[in-house]
What we know:
The structure is a single chain. By secondary structure, the protein is an alpha/beta fold. 64% of the residues lie in helices and 7% in strands. It folds into two domains: 15-439, Growth Hormone, Chain: A; 445-629, Glycerol-3-phosphate (1)-acyltransferase. It has 22 helices and nine strands. A hairpin with a 2-residue loop joins strand 1 and strand 2. The chain is elongated, with a radius of gyration of 27 Å.
Amino acid sequence: MSQQSQFRLLGVRRFAPFFWTQFLGAMNDNVFKVAFTSLVTYHTALFEGVDAHSAAFLISAIFIAPFVLFSATSGQIADKIEKSRLIRLVKSLEIGIMLLGLAGFAWHSAPLLYVGTFLMGLHSTLFGPVKFAYLPQHLDSTELVGGNGLVEMGTFVAILIGTLLGGELAGVTRGGMVVGPLYVGIVCVTIAVAGRAVSQRVPLSPAPQPDLRINWNPFTETWRNLALAHERRVVFQSLLGISWLWFLGATFLTSFFSFAKDVLGGDQNVVTLLLAMFSVGIGTGSLLCERLSGRHVEIGLVPFGSIGMTVFAVDLYLSTHGQTAGPALTGIGGFLAYPGHWRVLVDLFCVAMFGGFYSVPLYALIQSRCAPTHRARIIAANNILNSFFMIGASLLGVFMTQAGYTIPQLFLVVGLLNAVVAIYIYTLVPEFLLRFIAWILVHTVYRLRRVNAERIPDQGAAVLVCNHVSFADAVVLMAASPRPVRFVMDHNIFKVPLLSWFFRQAKAIPIAPAHEDPEMLARAYDAVAAALEDGDLVCIFPEGKITATGDVNPFKSGVQQIIRRTPVPVVPMALRGLWGSFFSRKGAPAMSRPFRRGILSRLELVVGEPVAPDAATPEALQQMVLALRGDWK
């Protein structure tokens, strides 16, 4: 699906009404929160008993509290009730909440607005599991990354528009009096009504588990949801990764008001500019994921995103360290007149853009690897973790500001913590780092084109067979496959320096001929059988060695022995374009001539139709691979 076709989803009913419903909800959240935060920061006198310095962090914590209390319940509701009906109920609730907010803004009542903030958090808590469980129900595997990218982009564009509206409306004055709060309340009610109207067209989305008995105890159900999420390690670590991003994002977003006022010397308009850059950055990164991922869930982008977030968060500290606001606040013109402030904007944009690279693949991974019957509850577990992390971000912000640390120092601490968290996650789940290495390889040394990659099964066990052209074959195949692959490879290749670490982390299975090491051969077949029993993909190079001539060597009988023991489909594949590369043996030993073919050399992986076990003879598979490869080696 190209970048253009990604936007075609906005023209189909299974996606568009849902997209605009969540868009208007996210926008309303931010009109309300930003206006309230802006008013208590710049017009504190309107509200009795409000501390301007800590109000932003308090508002953030109140909004997040319902995620902690009610996410487990909302996940069960989303698995039990038909989703379009539930969406309309939630949007009707939003209208009532915004009428309460209108009263709070009109009467300048901080208690009413705090209650409204809590209830809007409840509204988002109920909508969250529906939002991410809906997408895999209506999008196929080739649309899932693009759909998530659009939703992520739409959410942050909505945040941007809501920020602009909330910030501008909050400061409206007439005759020297601040009348903006009343306008904010009216706009919030209007957006809520529009969201309810759009939700009427959301298509029927049957409940995956309508007979589910809801456990109304939020504490026991929260624990149960977290245990459910913990059953699959890569899913749980992905949840933690997303929650960490919300920690980082919440720290930045709630700090912008103090950052603009106390460090950059900017007024409300500068706050809006900072939030706009952050939102545009997230949207840009989210949309680029579709192009960078090659239409499938590419978790190799996750380490790429985390590296970028750390680099630019640290640079943001360096660009503002020691800077303090002048005696008078300036608008956007005065802010942009200072050259150093352009660096601040670039840093914020890049932190957010790399955040998009980081988050979209994680959301798509969770959706694609969860059982549909409890997908909403896994998303609810994610929301619970997100809320704990965001509350932690608010507490860290309050602690550091009360202790006298500056906002740039807060950004530095979070940037460095991001590197520590990333290393920890990638140590626990090497799949992220392996996919990153593979992704870097096929986007720097090679340009990889996948042909019929959808023939690789989305789930269930299968044996992949491929011609063996170079030492990089396994890395390229890993980058091309939408799922992790266990590789069976010659023990001599398995022990190649540098590559051996990669192969061990990928859980490759070393194998040796019977005349060299019969015990290793037996262990290899046992490991393959166990992997297939677990539903994994196993790839074998039936030639048994890397070609020295570019031609396909005769296939050996190992595949037959594997499928005789564990009958599963066999998927023939062919690599094209690797012969003559740095990692091949053409004309010289492999890896002896750097840049033999230059950089970004073109190669292809062509995938054939799956073959039934009883038809997968060595001779038949060899002919299929030869036909897929064609004349291009």
